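Materials and Methods. Structural model of JmjC domain-containing protein. The 329-residue sequence of JmjC domain-containing protein from Ciona savignyi was retrieved and submitted for structure prediction as follows.
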Amino acid sequence: FDSNSINKYPFPSEQIPRLSVADPETYRLIKESKPVIITDTNLVGSAAKWDLNYLHENLGKGLFYVYTSNTNKFKYYNSNRAEQCKSFVNPTERHHVTFPQFLQMLKRCSCTDEKVYLQQILNDTVGTNIVDDFLQFNWDWVNKCKAAFGWGQLSSNLLLIGLEGNITPVHYDEQENFFAQISGYKRCILFSPDQFDCLYPHPVAHPCDRQSQVDLSNPDYKRFPKFRNVRPTEAIVGPGDVLYIPMYWWHQIESLLSRGLPPVTVSVNFWYKGSALPDKIEYPLTPQQRVSVMRNVEKMLAAALDDPDKVGGLLRSIVEGRYTDHALS
Ligand code: OGA
Ligand code: FE
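The predicted structure was written out as tokens:
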């Protein structure tokens, strides 16, 4: 990758460790819900040949979700909620197109400012060669991990084909993720769930639930003063790498410019449901459990008040002038 394409950010960061599948430390980190890059899983080795030509010939005639953006950012939003929310301006546009149409859109990008990003859950519309490649993923290894860490079902595999420069802005997912890089390089910037207060997510009922309101490249410190305290851990993933993104960990993912290669990045992720609740909850809660509690409180209030816009006011009435750090002492 081209090191000139690495954005500069106003915070120091640590490096995510890069370890082997054979290293016991790898499993200790995953068990502790800490990110790690595993360099030699061969998880998606059978997909190493998935360049645009091969995909064109073998993906089949199905339709794919392709997002377009007038900036290099592709902020996720819930389209059902976006439709209900009149004042919301969609940050990207979603298209349902064939693979050849996607290739046309990619070509057009070189002469406009528009960027494109294919993000499609792998399903049974793909051709037989892709199905064969998929069956040759290292299921043995991931299934063993799933069992060892007590994760729930594999919920989906998302195929991501992005243009260099594309950014998926900082957000968290409510699933465990093995993020497998196939071609090109991506910079992944992760923040632990104990930095929730620094990242100011949109309200849970907002179309951009789980997304931070802070723009990492241009943080508004007046609105988001605690963002000054963020301390991410980051890494660049390349072909063959698998990044473990623990559930509820914030992440921003940026496709880097690569010299020589075609200017696209290809990734497939493996999203797993989290582990079941333990029989006995231990205190203090983990940062992840705390986020989950906050989400449930917000959801309950939005439902009870039948109006998401009234949640903030009610929470303020409860807290302001009453609860301080020492309210009960
Ligand atoms: C994810 C994710 C975005 C990207 O896999 O959870 O946020 O651009 N991916 O790869
Ligand atoms: Fe994500």
